[in-house]
Design brief:
The protein has 99 residues and is mainly α. It is built from 2 helices and no strands. It starts with a helix and ends with a helix.
Length: 99
């Protein structure tokens, strides 16, 4: 029975890590595109194109900030619920051994 427990625990970890890793990758892409569009806006000759590139850069940096905030909220909620679950398990364990 013990190997199946270890297998189920290791099966849960990669899925959680995949979500966080994907979020960090998307965040990095947003920040990179923001800097890239800003760089392109300095090299553009036309004013309309400069404004459009700066607007895109602003959209991507705001998107990156929103994604980062969502990731922080997600991690905070996950930690809070894991603490509550640990407390509930610790309260239930003595009653199981007594009965």
């Amino acid at each position: 029975m013990q190997p199946s427990l270890n297998t189920s625990l290791t099966a849960q970890v990669p899925s959680r890590l995949k979500v966080e890793t994907a979020t960090v990758v998307v965040l990095a892409i947003c920040i990179f595109l923001s800097f890239y569009f800003t760089f392109l806006s300095f090299q553009a000759i036309e004013d309309a194109l400069k404004k459009q590139l700066v607007t895109f850069a602003a959209y991507f940096i705001i998107s990156g900030a929103v994604i980062l905030a969502i990731l922080m909220i997600h991690i905070g909620i996950k930690k809070a619920f894991s603490r509550v679950a640990d407390e509930l398990r610790s309260r239930e364990e003595p009653s199981e051994h007594e009965g």
